[in-house]
Amino acid sequence: MGMRVTKHSQSVIGLLRALNVEASAVPRARPIYRRIVELIDRGIARGSLAPGFRLPPERDFAAALRVSRTTIVAAYRELESRGLARGYVGRGTFVSAKRDGDTPFAWRGKISATALQTTDSTLRDLMRHAADPGIVSLAAGEPALDVFPLEAFRVAMDNVLSRHGTTAWGHGPTEGLAPFRDALAHRFGGSAANMLVIAGAQQGLDLLARCLIDRGDTVIVDRPGYLGALQSFRSAGARMVGWDIARADMGELEDLVLRFRPKLIYTNPTFQNPTGVTISIRARRELIELARRFRVPIVEDETYCELALGSTAPPPALHTLDEDGTVVIRVNSFSKVLAPGLRLGWISAARPIIEQLAIMKQQVDPHTQNLIQLVVARLIEGGMFDRHLGVLRVEHRRRRDALAKALQRYVPDNALRFVVPDGGLFLWCRIEGDVSARDVQQRALEEKVFVVTGEPFYADGGGTRELRLCFTARPTEASVRAARVIATALGDAARAVVHPEPISRIV
Ligand SMILES: Cc1ncc(COP(=O)(O)O)c(C=O)c1O
Questions:
Q1: φ, ψ for residue 330 (rounded to 5)?
Q2: Does 149 contact ligand 1 (Cβ within 6 A)?
Q3: Could you tell me which residues come within 8 angstroms of residue 369 by beta carbon, excluding any fewer than 6 positions away?
Q4: Beta strand 449-450 pairing with 452-453
Q5: Sign of dihedral through CA atoms 125, 130, 131, 132?
Q6: C-beta neighbour count of 370 within 10 angstroms
Q7: How far apart, in whole angstroms, are the C-alpha atoms of residue 419 and residue 405?
């Protein structure tokens, strides 16, 4: 029997067309809702209904099939329980996923709507390539791990195990072990009572995002800025507005604050990731003054502040200038000064914030590993940590200079511009001309060299002509080899660019 198309709503027509059936041909065998489910299930399996396809409103579909609305409701419920469809209040029901083989339901369809909004896996890709021995990765930020103070670490570990074994193996306070927090306060300043030990700065940024951001709040972030922070703020529902960190124009920041009334300002003011820029003492003072005047907290990411490579120390940190400790939240990490595999860092902030962060942390990570806290406390107290920093700076300087020189030597015609930074781990490079950073990345990866493009560092678009190269992660010979590959990739990508014919030649 033919379908009288005009009688039905567009959404019903769309569905029936995709399924290649007529309304009257939907099998009437009972229970009817099961037949509807099977029909749609098969349509999804065949690919004629793709994820995102909007199923017809229940009332329209019921009218078209001449069944009760409850039948359609039951069918949609069943599709939801199979993970094949998802209903959104006020928006309708949408195909959500295809069944994974012969399973009772589609796993992807079971993932929460909030979790599905977290899609950016840049950080994970960086970690994966950094750990792949077949790839020379200049992408993830790692210090020179081959000069890690292994012997001092072993001695400290033995000492902890023989003296504090039970503390190491037992539970500990979520805020972190007192001896470690005391060592931190002594070495880095701040009060032990206002610290929360975390499993790396990324955990701290994620906790801060969830602690301080309501969906729709604005956060001012460095432009470009650390991609992991951007990911966490984005997942928390923040609207991000970029502030040009290299220009560090306070007038511009004040305008942004007035216009967007941000919930917080996130900045990495010392040897910034990715640019390597350090903002001046004057800009820092103005930043604190502005934060006070407009009552906006600042999250200061201090991850690179110990990694000066020149002879002059960077200006005092924002938290030092915030003398009464009222507006700055500090986030710090041992990832770039010891090893990222230790997963150790801390937050220092006003007590109410630390209290709330600790409550949130215990839900995902009841406390950071005791063993590592105790060992690093010993390294700090015994002076080994500072000795290691001295070694690291010398090695990092050597690696920075080697990579910069190799790029200058191999890259043709100044096709890559960068400023040699005074600290941190990265060369931030701008590609001249029409070559896309992604193309260069892809070509270099084919030769087993991995670099990261600028795009993930911009919350609001940009970075298509930029590359970030970590100069510390690999010994000089490997990064010089990588520089040659990057130079060749740049040359090949430049040759592949199609230049439009000049108008004068066409007309
Ligand atoms: C500015 C900045 N903050 C935080 C992190 C995260 O470091 P962690 O390994 O301590 O989580 C990084 C790592 O690259 C970073 O560059």
A1: -100, 140
A2: no
A3: 199, 343, 344
A4: unpaired
A5: positive
A6: 22
A7: 12
Ligand 1 pocket mutation, candidates 202, 230, 306, criterion most atoms within 8 A of CB: 202
Provide the whole-model pTM.
0.89
Collapse the DSSP code of 469 into the 3-class scheme (helix H, G, I; strand E, B; otherwise coil) and give the result: strand
- Whether residue 202 has its Cβ less than 6 Å from ligand 1: yes
- Count H helices, E strands: the chain? 19, 15
CA 198, 201, 206, 210 torsion-angle sign? positive
Spatial separation of the C-alpha atoms in residues 106 and 100, rounded to whole Å? 6
Per-residue pLDDT tens digits for 34-54: 999 999 999 999 999 999 999
The torsion angles phi and psi of 123, rounded to 5 degrees, stand at -60, -40
Amino acid making up residue 165: G
267: CB partners within 8 A, 6+ apart: 221, 222, 225, 243, 245, 279, 287, 298, 299, 300, 301, 318
Q: Which atom of ligand 1 is nearest to the CA of 333?
A: 10
- Residue 56's CB is within 10 A of a number of other CB atoms, namely 23
Protein residue closest via CA to atom 7 of ligand 1: 201
Cβ contact 240:276 at 8 Å: no
pLDDT digits (tens, 9 = 90+) for 247-295: 999 999 999 999 999 999 999 999 999 999 999 999 999 999 999 999 9
Cα 275 from Cα 481, distance rounded (Å): 23
Spacing, Cα 340 to ligand 1 middle (Å): 9
CA distance 153 to 146: 13
Residue 200, ligand 1, Cβ within 6 A: yes
Mean of per-residue pLDDT scores for the chain: 93
Q: Whose CA is nearest to atom 4 of ligand 1?
A: 201
Contacts of 155 (CB under 8 A, 6+ apart): none
Mutate to test the pocket of ligand 1, among 207, 300, 333 (most ligand atoms within 8 A of CB): 333
The atom number, within ligand 1, closest to the CA of 141 reads 14
The C-alpha atoms of residue 477 and residue 454 are separated, in whole angstroms, by 25
Considering Cα of 131, then 425, then 146, then 313, what sign does the dihedral take? negative
Q: Are 329 and 353 in contact (CB under 8 A)?
A: yes
CA of residue 338 to ligand 1 center, whole Å? 13
Of the candidates 245, 237, 239, 243, the residue with the CA atom closest to the CA atom of residue 218? 239
Q: By the 8 A CB rule, do 328 and 298 touch?
A: yes
| Torsion sign (Cα): 66, 67, 69, 72 | negative
Report the alpha-carbon distance of residue 381 to residue 179 in Å, rounded: 10
Indicate the pairing of strand 85-88 with strand 92-95.
Answer: antiparallel
Distance 210 CA to ligand 1 centre (A): 17
* Res 272: pLDDT: 98
Residue 274 CB less than 6 A away from ligand 1: no
